[in-house]
Amino acid sequence: MSSARFAPAEVDVSYRADGSAVLRSPRPLGDHPRTLPEVLARWAKVDPSRPFLAERADRTAPGAPGWRTVTYGEAHAAARSLGQALLDRGLGPERPLLILSDNSVDHALLALGAMTAGVPAAPASAAYSLQSKDFAKLRAIASLLAPGLVFAETAAYGRALDALDLPVAGPLAALLPTRPGPALEAAAAAVGPDTVAKVLFTSGSTGHPKGVINTQRMLCANQAMLAAGWRFLEERPPVLVDWLPWSHTFGGNHNFNLVLWHGGTLYVDDGKPAPGLIDRTAEAFRDVASTLYVNVPRGFDAFAPLLEKDAALRERFFSRLEVVFYAAAALSQPAWDRWMAMVRASGRDVSFVSAWGSTETSPLATQVHEEIDRPGTIGLPPPGAEVKLVPNAGKLELRVRGPHVTPGYWRAPELTAAAFDEEGFYRIGDAGRFADPRDPRRGLVFDGRLAEDFKLGSGSWVRVGALRLAIVSAGAPLVQDAAICGHDRDEVGALLFLDPRGCAALIGAAAPPPLPELARHPEVRRAVAEKLAAHNARGGGDTLTVRHAILLEEPPSIDAGEITDKGYLNQRAVLERRAALVERLYRSGEAEPLRIP
Predict the structure, then answer these.
(1) C-beta separation of 379 from 367 below 8 A
(2) What does the DSSP 8-state code read for residue 156?
């Protein structure tokens, strides 16, 4: 266990006659600030010169060295000015602010200004503006939100703004000189626990994005819950280098609010886990020694090779590190082993932990309190949270209740009503199980998405989450992700997304060839078939055996909802969009699919 202090793993379990159970912490959630603007004001008073936000100077001024830094005092003053500027433009609780921007200091200041004035801020995924071809999701968001104003940080968002035809805020420099007045004082005084802080849009796995209401109560309760388990955060302010988009709850709530809550410093990483962009991440970590490393599985996969081959970067990266944390999707065993090897080799006492939750739980719903030896463990409910386990199709469905759970969806009462059960527990759609049924303190293990599982023609259930991880692990480093199919069929099949870097190394290419070329390359096809055959040879029955696979020639589409900008693959969307490929997969005599022994 790391020298970082964690709260003891404790849980009370109430078993019910219907087979369900409710888990809760025996410790109450203590008193805590009511709103995030209160937290910002407190740090601005306690230590106004402490660095709060930083971004690389060359992001806005090409060639400029170093980092642009904003202190807590400066951030608080800017938030008040920007809050007044938004009120002057007619914004309020029913006229939100739509933000089109990557993570940046200006984005953060404007969002804090909106919160200060009681204006809901709605950051839309930058991919909906910069990678989309039809702007359909962005238009759907704007139609539902009905914003009073749109902020777009750079000219790159010009086409998206044209598609929306809404009032534009203009550059932040034009808003910052606004002097706070009585209107701001009145609006700020009205901000309380039930004030809508932001509206976050889900990735739209079943249609257009849904607007999840995030209240100040949710966000503050969630940070108090997180802090109750991670006691080491009280010892020194955290330093975090982070790329995770603020349009999602992981980056925008868990990470950003964690830094603000504890008076830490957030260095905005303008890199991403993608070829070329991951080098920017490496540059950031050469400059800054973070105390936490927080990422999604795709980020772990992309950054590991750079750390392994660069001893100076690796030494700098681990020099102050206390905790490595993954969430948002399951980490594969090979990725876990790879990172654990680097942790052990670093000689530092670093904990590798995880948690579980969703946009609707802001996001923490369970938290790991102890050292874990394999991926999948998601921990226990923190103080103030309750998790209900309900038998469902041979699994235990997870449901969540507490002050950190959303009151519902923006202007969608029918969706809100369907999201909660008769006891007020949010139906998150995931399944879980006890790591050790004899000792609930060992925590819960993630057991997949209920909507993804299906039955073969034999009536046997295929557990998609577990099988997907097994296939990705077996196919490493050639297979990046997999969509599992076979509903009502006799055998399981898979649509495989290749990892261009791993495939390029296999065939000796200096740079990854185009995906169609890789998917048709005889050596790649042979190697993938061998890896899946080895997986099948380990046994496990029909539901764990993959007999058919197609190597996909097109990456997952964000417009079609196949993937989020965090790299999470939407199984249902992939199978629906590529239904013709699924049919080809099971059609006899086709040449393209791999037939796996």
Answers:
(1) yes
(2) G
Contact 181, 105 (CB under 8 A): no
N-to-C CA span, the chain: 43
- Copy the structure tokens of residue 446: 């993630």
pLDDT tens digits for range 257-272: 999 999 999 999 999 9
Asked if residue 346 lies in contact with residue 339, where contact means CB atoms within 8 angstroms, the answer is no
At 205, the pLDDT band (50, 70, 90 cuts) reads very low
| Residue 461: its H or E element | strand 461-462
Tell me which DSSP letter residue 363 carries. Answer: S
Q: What pLDDT does 300 receive?
A: 94
Percent of the chain clearing pLDDT 90 (strictly above): 76
Strands across the sheet with 386-392, in order?
A: 12-15, 21-24, 386-392, 395-401, 426-434, 444-449, 377-379
- Domains in the chain, CATH or no CATH each: 453-595 (3.30.300.30)
Give this prediction's pTM.
0.88
Its sign, for the CA torsion 133, 137, 96, 384, is: negative
Indicate left, alpha or beta for 35 from its phi (over 0: left) and psi (-120 to 50: alpha). Answer: beta
Tokens of 546: 């993959």
Within 10 angstroms of residue 439's Cβ, the number of other Cβ atoms is: 11
